[in-house]
Amino acid sequence: MTITPRPTSTYDPYADITVAPPDVEVGGEENDAGTTGEFELDERHSLRRVAGLSTELEDVTEVEYRRLRLERVVLVGVWSDGSADGAETSLAELAALTSTAGSQVLEGLIQRRQKPDPATFIGSGKVDELRDVVLTTGADTVVCDGELSASQLRNLEDRVGIKVVDRTMVILDIFAQHAQSREGKAQVELAQLEYMSQRLRGWGGSLSRQAGGRAGGAGGGVGTRGPGETKLETDRRRIHARMSRLRRDLAGMRKSRETKRADRRRHAVPAVSIVGYTNAGKSSLLNRLTGAGVLVEDALFATLDPTVRRAQTGDGRVYTLADTVGFVRHLPHELVESFRSTLEEVAEADVLVHVVDGSHPDPEGQLSAVRGVLADIGAGDIPEVVAVNKADAADPMALARLLRHEPHAVTVSARSGDGVDKLRAIVESELPHPPVEVDALVPYQHGELVSRVHTAGEVVSLTHEAAGTRLRANVPEDLAAALAPYAARE
Ligand SMILES: Nc1nc2c(ncn2[C@@H]2O[C@H](COP(=O)(O)OP(=O)(O)OP(=O)(O)O)[C@@H](O)[C@H]2O)c(=O)[nH]1
Ligand SMILES: [Mg+2]
């Protein structure tokens, strides 16, 4: 096995971002789709973590430190309301998240408490127990199932003696590892810096990671480290400089994304977005619906950069189908903020295909978590087609219960292909109708106009007459204008 260090280990906050071509393109990319997916998968598998980097960590900022080393972990959760099952499902999801982030989960602890302890998250007595578990298992990181305050993190670290991170940091870490596009990477980095800059503790205390003799040396850059400035202040300054830089870059990228979207709108191509909880099978379903080779993996957040594919209805109308980032309970607020421009694409879709994993223990909970985020980003009113996926693996009783809950849902299996044709038909029937009704007699030398009606409009009737093709159709405005000279006279 070849082991390649993660790119973040050579993280340089001042490195210039290279300009890469934008990743989302409508049409034209289907040809190499299959190979791209496989390549991506290979590459991702080669990006596992490397153990034992500890000696190289003297001059990294704290943010880098937290990003880099999350390897052998113990999970802790607090169960306050709901059932014990709920707490276990949540911890199981955290375990899946941490493994996706590349760590090995050694042990999980849940404490029943009214609410998390304001000082140490879990109760004080439980902290001693946690320390024992850490010592006996040789863990290097504790992951808490929740969002912790700076002081909770610090207190726990001081008492347990190893690094403590929370659920949000794990999700951010996964996003950081998997983002592909330049925009995606910048969005994740900004979210990460924002979250962590509020939680910097400064080296020292039990973790003892002073910059030591190298302060003023490499890493800080000329003029960044004045005499007497602490590592913490330097870190803060570097991080804030980096954050403003990222915000500026993102504003620029957002503009080009908007131009592209406006372009699609002008050509009135209907847009369908596939949304749903992470690991529900969105990418698999996109592959089934379009034959595209999008990365599918039994891992949370396999997809981080939205892919847009071209699709065609039975009668030739072109529309786009977009895969999206999966949602998860407690999606970090910073991430939703950073990904807002990407998520806005979802908000502008004409139809949503909401995929839910019918074989999951709590599909209803996943549906409502996703709908919560959809409402947040202003996508709550878009027509939604619910696709209950993994029907091949689901318990029939559970499926029946879910269908009572969601009477308009379509049951599908992206794996076997069952139900996919029906889903496609329903999605196509939900596409918005082009706004302008036309009746035209198009001379035979203008066949290209007839083809445009097929791809962009809905044909009501078509006959061949002596003078040309007689067409009744609903078409977008630009096409109606092009057809105006040939308006038929009754
Ligand atoms: N049994 C079964 N497994 C499925 C089906 N559809 C998808 N899967 C599996 O579910 C896992 C996740 O599939 P993806 O298509 O990557 O899911 P996703 O929703 O795109 O996931 P993220 O991008 O990680 O949010 C993979 O292991 C798939 O093989 C299905 O119909 N039946
Ligand atoms: Mg996916």
Automatic annotation (TrEMBL):
Keyword terms, alphabetized: Cytoplasm, GTP-binding, Magnesium, Metal-binding, Nucleotide-binding
GO-annotated cellular components: cytoplasm
One GO molecular-function entry: GTP binding
Bias (Gly residues) ranges: 213-226
Region (Disordered): 206-230
Pfam families reported for this sequence: GTP-bdg_M, GTP-bdg_N, MMR_HSR1
InterPro entries tied to this protein: G_HFLX_dom, GTP-bd, GTP-bd_M, GTPase_HflX, GTPase_HflX_N, GTPase_HflX_N_sf, P-loop_NTPase
Compartment(s) where it occurs, according to its Swiss-Prot or TrEMBL record: Cytoplasm
SUPFAM superfamilies: P-loop containing nucleoside triphosphate hydrolases (SSF52540)
Domain Hflx-type G: 270-435
Gene3D superfamilies found in the cross-reference section: 6.10.250.2860, GTPase HflX, N-terminal domain, P-loop containing nucleotide triphosphate hydrolases
Family classification: Belongs to the TRAFAC class OBG-HflX-like GTPase superfamily. HflX GTPase family.
UniProt-listed PANTHER family: GTP-BINDING PROTEIN 6-RELATED, GTP-BINDING PROTEIN HFLX
Function: GTPase that associates with the 50S ribosomal subunit and may have a role during protein synthesis or ribosome biogenesis.
Subunit structure, as described in the record: Monomer. Associates with the 50S ribosomal subunit.
NCBIfam families given in the database record: GTP_HflX
Name by which UniProt lists this protein: GTPase HflX
Organism the protein comes from: Haloactinopolyspora alba
